[in-house]
Amino acid sequence: MSEELTLVMKDAEDSMLKTISHLEVELVKIRAGKANPGMLEGIMVEYYGNPTPINQVANISALDARTLSVQPWEKNMLQQVERAIIAANIGINPQNDGNIIRLFLPPLTEERRKELVKRCNGEGENTKVSVRNIRRDLIEQIKKLQKDGLSEDASKDAETAAQQLTDRFISLVDKHLQAKEKEIMAV
Question: Of 104, 132, 152, which residue sits at a domain end?
Fold first, then answer.
């Protein structure tokens, strides 16, 4: 394989790894009955006029399997943090005792579990589409390299390698989805 081709393949693999990382982050946000501080990622709190991620203004920890505690570093931020959690509409009502905010996760119903599995599958499908788009771009680059002098055999081998790379990442997406579905459906 030529140096350019190796570089193009490596670039595509890196992009596919990023899509898998993104899927992992999105799956952590989908709660599966267990309290996880990652569920609050992406919630922005108004901190002295600037939207700031919640984990930069408060300590978030799991007290037990069904309870999260959010303790702002500044006591005057308690109300803003509580408002931000309510506004994020994550399906949990915060309980403020004046020092700390507790989030009690209700047990999941069967219907809600199925809804969460559908949401996970939607995220997985988006990731698969992204991986396939990366493959399409990779094959276009390989064909461009062939026009610039890459041999036909090397081009075909590279396209086969691109498909194998895609298959590997698609199966990785499926494994992540199966693990998350198992976690959600466990009572």
Answer: 104
pTM for the model stands at 0.71
Tokens representing 150?
């890459």
Torsion of CA 119, 86, 109, 100, to 10 degrees: 120
User: What phi and psi, each to the nearest 5 degrees, are found at residue 89?
Assistant: 55, 55
Same domain flag for 121 and 92:
no
As a whole number of angstroms, the distance between CA 144 and CA 153 comes to 14
Residue 47 phi, psi dihedral angles, 5° rounding: -115, 100
pLDDT one-digit tens code per residue, 26-76: 887 776 667 778 778 878 888 888 888 888 888 888 888 788 888 888 888
Q: Which domain holds residue 86?
A: 37-104
DSSP-derived 3-state class of residue 41: coil
Nearest Cα to Cα of residue 103 among 138, 58, 146: 58
Q: Are residues 13 and 66 in the same domain?
A: no
Cβ contacts of 47-54, under 8 Å, gap ≥ 24: 47/77, 47/80, 54/81, 54/84, 54/85
Which residues is 46 bridged to in the sheet? 51
At residue 69, what are phi and psi to the nearest 5 degrees? -120, 140
Give the domain-ending residue among 104, 132, 149: 104
